[in-house]
Amino acid sequence: MTATAPASAQIPAGIFPFPQRHFLCVADLEPGDVAALLDLAETFVDLNRQRAKKLDLLKGRTLINLFFEASTRTQSSFELAGKRLGADVVNMSPRASSIAKGETLVDTAVTLNAMQPDILVVRHGASGAASLLSQKVSCSVVNAGDGQHEHPSQALLDALSLRRAFGRLEGLAVAICGDVLHSRVARSDVGLLTLMGARVRLVGPPTLMPVGVERWGVEVFHDLRAGIAGADVVMMLRLQLERMQGALVPSMREYFRLWGLDREKLALARPHVRVMHPGPMNRGVEIDSDVADDLAVSLIQDQVEMGVAARMAVLASMAARLDNA
Amino acid sequence: MAPRAIAFANARLVDPASGYDGPGALIASGGRIAEVRRGRGLADLSADIRQVDCAGAMLAPGLVDLRVKTGEPGAEPKETLKSAARAAAAGGVTSIVVQPDTDPAIDDPSVVDFILRRARDIELVHVYPAGAATKGLAGKAMAEIGLMREAGCVYVTDADRPIVDSKVMRRLLAYAAGLDLLVAHRPADPWLVDGAAATESEFAGRMGLPAAPAIAERIMLERDLALAELTGARLLVDQVSAAASLASLARARAAGVKVLATCSINHLSFNELDIGDYRTFWKLTPPLRAEDDRQALIEALLAGLVDIVVSAHAPAPAEDKRLPFEEAAPGSVGLETLLPALLALHHDRAAPLLDLMRAVTFAPAQAIGLKAGRLDVGAPADLVLCNLATPRIIDAEKLLSKSKNSAFDGRRLQGEVLMTLVDGRVVFETRPDALSNTQSPAHPGGPTG
After folding, report:
1. How many CB pairs under 8 A join A and B?
2. Rounded CA separation A117/A114 (Å)
């Protein structure tokens, strides 16, 4: 392929139509769906590295980013994904304006729905918010994070990063470490990675583990060293600093000592181990900068890059479903 | 004006007070039960008595519901005393006890009086106020519970709010013991349940819902039982919901503590999985528990450890329910579904009708000292006539409550209230034509066929 070829030449003619009207949680996906989305995302990775990045798969379509919670990377990732596919993208952060006036989540969504968008990408601080919206609007809803429930596009981008790094997902030993209790990323990753045959371990202090987690089809460790021993992948979760007030862990320095990832602990994993983090990182709390910035082991920048491609795959696939309808 | 006398023939009389469940007839006159005939039909009645052929339907004391919320005063768009009373009548509930967490709160004799006057004007079912245990339901200073009792409140409670300060609770119980006044308390450790929307479990963990362990109930219950033992007070445990609490209850009762326990029909009918995809009609206080808890509650009810079943009627308008689960208001309306939902335990598990009906008639009436709740000559003619077998699908939109938040929406139940009487007055009747065989067979001057 030459640099002058139109970008769209790489894209397969018949794009895999998304299996559901909405993308709310990974439980809605089958292994074949995930594989198709990952294959599609791969083509967008190459496209995104070219100078001409623009396609017209979503031409004429309107995408609204409705973010009730602050977000830099997820919101810009969806915005770029939409724009590169040719959609009109509107960003809304109704934290300040309408919420203060007493407008509810559903009111806001119904108002926006009346403006006839095709896809509503929503992030909200309450679990189940995206599901609630999907029942009240006529457009497609993409969950960009609902409370402590799910963040399914993150799981897709994590899977894409891992598949590119290891060539497979099946059989990978993935240790997800830290604040699992409050993490929607952990819930989506557990669902999607186990679906694709990875062996997932959850590692963290009991105060940061959900009750009943041992029945999630994962191995549970309350010791970081034991949890990452022999792992192919170590994913560190963000410790939300406001959790300190909840007395869930005694202090940041104790947390780093027991649960933070540094070189010495990482040496217990397999030699080819790769490190991930959904961001934003608390350096020196859950991860040492030395590890985070080492491009030989860290996939953290790849995750950001894959985020745009994975979300383009989701949006293109949803558009294919809308086109077929 | 006394209502017209009415006679019920061919009924299945279910009277938990006497333990009778069998065929019979009943005559109500002058607002009271005038005659109960077991096993026998009716003959030689005077023509001015309305006769109802029950055709084997259950005739039982009207239900007494100890835990009903309305929005009056202060939140009338949710529910008024009148709309709640209409719903109660349609559900065969003849006495309701309204909770004091209104605006203003029922923490003063004048508000007790207001509720009673409103109820008299509405003239449907009996409405009794529960008084606030503490001023403004703040859990700090005791309300004027002696004066409120004189004004007509039947027990005191802070409704959903736990009385955290053990010293306040101790004094309240001691003072109430001197008045022989029942104190109701919903046991929940306030720190454990803070911010929780569900019961801690694998399900809540997967759903990412903030949750509290069921043991939070037992922790507070143990304190309450110990203080009841210390003070000799009569304690009403408001809506026991967790299996872990039942052993504590049994121990205290065996030790002679004067404790009664209620549970809500919701916790006998649903478990946490009914929440499904964040369905807010199933967001309740206390939150729904595991299936094991539900089974244990049913066993405890049938064994008599749980004495009373309440509807926990808690109206919430759409704008309070159409929210993300953790932000939505808790509660379900329940006045109209209490009886058929309870009957589900009879139909599905062959639970004895007498045991089930006792928990919604005689037991709650006794707890608050009402003469109702029994089929006894001289008792108020508060009655429900119910066809036990009629199948129905609950449609929340068709319920009479102003708020339609019913956890039973879409549920298939059996049991249709045909008629409800309060003090001998018919306050609800499904199909007047079908039931009013006003023509007595011996009527001499009637038209001939």
Report:
1. 71
2. 8
Cross-chain residue pair A127–B278, CB shorter than 8 Å? yes
Over the range B143-168, which residues count as b (16 or more CB within 10 Å of their CB) and which as e?
Answer: bbbbebbebebbbbbbbbbbbeeeeb
The alpha-carbon gap from A124 to the nearest alpha carbon of chain B, in Å, equals 9
Strand partners, B323: none
Q: Determine contact: A71 vs chain B, CB below 8 A.
A: no
Give the orientation angle of helix A300-324 with respect to helix A73-84, to 10 degrees: 50
Spell out the alpha helix ranges (H) of A224-269.
Answer: 224-228, 252-259, 263-266
User: Which pair of structure tokens corresponds to residue B407?
Assistant: 């956890």
The answer to whether residue A128 neighbours chain B at the CB level (below 8 Å) is: yes
Cβ contact A105–B206 (<8 Å): no
Pairing of strands A62-67, A119-124: parallel
Residues B390 and A97: their CA atoms lie apart, in Å, by 52
Chain B residues touching residue A106 (CB < 8 angstroms):
322-323
Q: Does A146 touch chain B (CB under 8 A)?
A: yes
Across the interface, whether the CB atoms of A212 and B203 are under 8 A apart is answered yes
A14 at B interface, C-beta within 8 A: no
Helix axes A152-166, A31-48, angle to 10 degrees: 70
Please count the other Cβ atoms lying within 10 Å of the Cβ belonging to residue B434.
12
Contact A126/B325, CB-based, under 8 Å?
yes
Contact B278 A132 (CB under 8 A): yes
Amino acid at B265: I
Residue of B nearest to A148 (CA): B208
Q: What is the pLDDT along chain B (449 residues), one digit of tens a residue?
A: 678 899 999 999 999 999 999 999 999 999 999 999 998 777 777 778 999 999 999 999 999 999 999 999 999 999 999 999 999 999 999 999 999 999 999 999 999 999 999 999 999 999 999 999 999 999 999 999 999 999 999 999 999 999 999 999 999 999 999 999 999 999 999 999 999 999 999 999 999 999 999 999 999 999 999 999 999 999 999 999 999 999 999 999 999 999 999 999 999 999 999 999 999 999 999 999 999 999 999 999 999 999 999 999 999 999 999 999 999 999 999 999 999 999 999 999 889 999 999 999 999 999 999 999 999 999 999 999 999 999 999 999 999 999 999 999 999 999 999 999 999 999 999 976 555 544 443 333 333 33
Which secondary structure element, helix H or strand E, spans residue B58, and what is its range? strand B58-61
Are the Cβ atoms of A106 and B211 closer than 8 angstroms? no
Beta bridge partner(s), residue B313: B68, B332
Which residue on chain A is closest to B191 by alpha carbon? A246
